[in-house]
Amino acid sequence: DGYDADYMLRKLNEEYTEWNLEMNLNKTECLVMGGNGTNLIMEYGATEKNCSKYRYLGSWISKEGGSEEDINNKLIKGKIAIRQLNSVI
């Protein structure tokens, strides 16, 4: 829930501060899976934007919890790469 997200984000920010790192709150987004998609208003006044899909380590994850769109995109990119290689051979 929102309280847990606020707590985790606050703790993460504290840890970043200890290592002289800075979190860019303007780029921070949240993805709620299986729930309503409302923006989170954090304790310290920041608003975290809700998004319907999120790119994590190069893969797209949707709020429905699936990655079917990501798999289809990777298949298409693979087919394009094979066609380009076949034209060279």
Automatic annotation (TrEMBL):
Entry superkingdom: Eukaryota
Protein name: Reverse transcriptase
Annotated source species: Cryptolaemus montrouzieri
